[in-house]
Amino acid sequence: MFRQIVISKDTMTYFKDKGVEFLSLNKTLKLAIQTLDDDIPWERFCIECKTVRSSGGRRLRVDDEVYAFLKGIKERFAQNDVKITFSRAAHILLKTAYENDRLRAVSVNVQGYKAKPSVLDKRLRELAKMMNEELPDLIFLQEMRVGEDLYRLNDLKKRLKIDYEAILPKGFDVDTEYDFCSCVTLIRKSLSDKVKMHSIERNHNDTGDSKLRVNYFTVNGMTYINAWMFQTYGASEARKELAGKMWDKIMEEIRKNVGDDTEFYLVGDLNAGEGVAFEDRIEELESRMVNTKLSVERKIPTRGGSVLDHAYCSKFANRVRTVDTTVWDTYGLSDHKALIMRLGRRKAA
Description:
The chain has 12 helices and 16 strands. It is α+β, with helices and mostly antiparallel strands. It folds into 2 domains: 2-100; 110-345, 4-Layer Sandwich (Deoxyribonuclease I, Chain A), CATH 3.60.10.
């Protein structure tokens, strides 16, 4: 048996803006139901659902299973003297499923380059406090010096409430590279058994911090590169040449591997371009993404409103939610801001 409900136009727009494609609303609703268990505290979404208007919208035939679930949501609200329509119930269901199914990620530069060990250790203690408030699934770190025998990295992991596994650059030699700046990604342990590592060839003639130490991996069908690129503004020609080689290697991988069906994210402290103006640096980054199927997220944190620190590029840029968090005002961690995002899916499609 099928029944008719109305999905509001606002609900459709809300999720399309986040990159959710409604190829079949009925299947999407069923998937949302399967994503959630019955212990979700629906009541906490009351205020958000009140803003949804049923203007336009779409009539949808749903089977008894979907209808009963939506009716159950309505009844939960009724117990709290809140009356909602089926359209609002569907919005709450889809919004909750989306938020729960997207991975929460943080990108932050801990500024290990030329930092005294004691200063870096203090920064990482402050970083742990921040992460214990945000509780992300993925933590993208740049300029991280892991310490001899990984002592600094292991100390950070012990301070975190959530159990994480560390992803180091493929081919990373702990004995010889422990004190050089690298990208390190911490991934929630419940996801870590689904990780597949990839490598980007590093130029063996490069030494020290000039080696390309990125994290390049796939989890649940989503591929990520966490990168720290050299700042070239006012830099020597030799440093600019090194930065150019780094970009060439990364862009070669992206062009080779990003297809129509690929969910791919380039994240980190990308330092694109030599200009100081925010718009100039965004345009430089966008020019690098030509012919890659990736776009640059423009709603990203800046330092003093001008300099691009962190960025991410994906097929869903400018549609995936980002939050600008001023880290240094609260924690004294860095003169960078942390970019907080919802990227990728918790479960494979």
